[in-house]
Design a protein that fits this description.
Number of helices: 18
CATH topology of the domain at 1-123 and 451-519: Rossmann fold
Strand order of the largest sheet: 2-1-4-5-6-7
Strand content: 15-25%
Shape: elongated
CATH superfamily of the domain at 1-123 and 451-519: P-loop containing nucleotide triphosphate hydrolases
Helix content: 55-70%
Distance between the termini: 27 Å
CATH architecture of the domain at 1-123 and 451-519: 3-Layer(aba) Sandwich
Structural class: alpha/beta
Mean pLDDT: 87
Number of strands: 15
CATH class of the domain at 1-123 and 451-519: Alpha Beta
Largest sheet: 6 strands, antiparallel
Radius of gyration: 48 Å
Length: 550
């Protein structure tokens, strides 16, 4: 429950501090006095967005701080999950700086607006006229039924599975699209891969082939040159080999005369040995050189194949062709891999659908059981509120679709009078009837939810007299198990509160300020009398106010 609220520099409020009781509190005031400002400030604490228009003085920051007693509401897990310090007396503070920047704190720890909004779901339900319109929406109707059916945990489990299911479905769609794309290119990729595979390419092969082609294509010239070299080296009269041997023989005759001749002889001998080896190598090369047109054709064909593949794939090396072949191979192989992935995902989806169907069946069973209980309790409350002939028809149908809260469709029909057909709530219920139905719904939900605080913002729209009196009694009954606030214009409801606050404006010079004060018993009599008769308070109005309070 909220124990206190402090507001500084917000809209028409300069500075306000107020403490709240844990029972049924009434807030009244003239139209435009600032009741909506109070709710706006509370909305900031609960995570609503704000801008510079919220600041009364644009040069100073706005601060809204609320204290909540939360010891009874098992919120420790929320604080742990959000890495926040848990305090039984939790303080939420919101600041809006003159720059427009907004900051939020829970027990002095900075938090995001989303965290604040999530926490607020456990703290306060602010009922406004807008929410009365939600009564005709299917999601809100399911919220009512599921609260009575105690479907909270099973819905949470269902939603976690549904998230996995949707991720799996999205993954399946992606993989199927990938497979479709790959299949479209599969035949062409296979053709390209097979073409490269058959080529049996090797790194460095192109250079070897080009060298071999040049040799085979010029075999006659090579043979002619080799023969000429051998003649120059081995000719009997004038051959280089014969002359070298004779050169060595003459030099050897000088060796006794000087060591330098000995050294020159050794060098000459080395040249002779090396040259002799060169001649032998040239002889072997000459023996191996012969015209081989078949080999030349094979080499030329392989080179032409390489050149053709390089042109097709727009590359210049055999290494690049080999890389392309490997990539094509992975694409060809990926078809079977994708098919295996798709099968695995389809199996996962089937398993998730089975689990979701089981949970949805449990959710449906709980709802079917809760519906008679809900209609019975609503009728009981609404009979007290002047609707003795009210009837509800709530039908569930199971669809083959996974919604966020199960597989059910809901039809929530209503009839206010005998002899009238059932109709859709928002089409056949008047504003006053909608207000009463919503109050009945809230009073029923109060028995099942553990929400600490509820604020009714003019839920009495469209009602008066004895009905208003009954509405006040219902809200007072609700306050036995939760903190209840009612912002009202009706004296019958105002008189039911345990405490009464008044919102009013004061004007000092050119400045208008909204204020909130806790009324004494005497002030309360005056306020209710004014609500009954206007500014000119009569004795009968005072007596009526006292009677209402008594």
């Amino acid at each position: 429950m909220i124990t206190s609220l402090s507001i500084e520099n917000f809209a028409l409020i300069e500075k306000l501090e107020i403490n709240f009781s844990n029972g049924f509190s009434i807030i009244t005031g003239e139209t435009g006095a600032g009741k909506s400002i109070l709710l706006g400030a509370l909305g900031l604490v609960l995570g609503k967005r704000a801008d510079l228009s919220s600041l009364k003085n644009k040069d100073e920051k706005c601060i809204v701080e609320a204290n909540f007693a939360i010891a009874k509401y098992q919120l420790q897990s929320f604080f742990e999950e959000n890495d926040l310090d848990y305090e039984e007396e939790t303080i939420i503070r919101r600041e809006i700086l003159p720059s427009g920047k907004s900051r939020a704190f829970v027990n002095d720890s900075p938090v995001t607006l989303q965290q604040l909004q999530d926490l607020s779901l456990y703290l306060i339900d602010i009922h406004s006229q807008h929410q009365t319109l939600e009564l005709s929406e299917e999601n809100f109707q399911f919220t009512i039924i599921d609260a009575i059916a105690n479907n909270g945990k099973i819905l949470q489990e269902y939603q976690q599975l549904l998230k996995q299911y949707r991720i799996a479905k999205a993954s399946l769609e992606v993989q199927k699209n990938n497979l479709s794309t790959v299949l479209k290119e599969k035949d062409y990729n296979e053709f390209l891969f097979n073409e490269l595979e058959l080529a049996q390419l090797k790194e460095g092969e192109q250079e070897e082939l080009e060298q071999s082609f040049e040799a085979l294509n010029n075999v006659e010239l090579i043979k002619e040159n080799l023969d000429k070299l051998l003649v120059l080296a081995q000719e009997e009269s004038f051959g280089l080999l014969k002359n070298l041997k004779e050169f060595k023989s003459v030099l050897q005759k000088n060796t006794p005369f000087s060591p330098s001749y000995e050294a020159l002889l050794e060098r000459t001998n080395s040249v002779l040995i090396e040259f002799d080896d060169i001649v032998k190598e040239l002889t072997r090369e000459s023996d191996m050189v012969f015209n081989d047109p078949e080999k030349l054709t094979r080499v030329d064909q392989k080179l032409q194949l390489i050149y053709s593949l390089q042109k097709k794939h727009q590359v210049i090396t055999v290494g690049e062709l080999i890389r392309i072949k490997n990539e094509l191979e992975s694409k060809v192989v990926s078809v079977s891999a994708l098919e295996e992935d798709i099968t695995a995902i389809e199996n996962q989806i089937a398993a998730l659908e089975s689990q979701l169907d089981s949970l949805a069946a449990h959710i449906n069973a709980g709802r079917q059981k809760a519906i008679p209980e809900l209609t019975s309790q609503l009728i009981t409350v609404l009979e007290q509120l002047g609707m003795p002939n009210v009837r509800f028809k709530i039908d569930l149908t199971v669809e083959e679709v996974y919604f966020n809260n199960g597989k059910d469709r809901l039809q929530f029909l209503f009839s206010a009078n005998k002899g009238t057909d059932f109709g859709i709530l928002k089409k056949v219920a008047s504003g006053g009837e909608m207000s009463r139905i919503m109050l009945a719904v809230k009073s029923v939900l109060a028995q099942y939810s553990k929400l600490p605080t509820i604020i009714f913002d003019e839920i009495d729209t469209g009602v008066s007299g004895e009905i208003a009196n009954k509405m006040g009694e219902i809200m007072r009954e609700m306050s036995k198990t939760m903190q209840v606030f009612a912002i009202t214009h009706l004296p019958q409801i105002a008189a039911k509160g345990a405490v009464h606050y008044k919102v009013f404006k004061t004007v000092t010079g050119d400045t208008t300020v909204s204020e909130l004060k806790l009324l004494t018993n005497e002030e309360r009599i005056q306020e209710i009398a004014e609500m009954l008769s206007g500014k000119e308070i009569s004795d009968s109005a005072l007596n009526h106010a006292k009677a209402l309070l008594n």
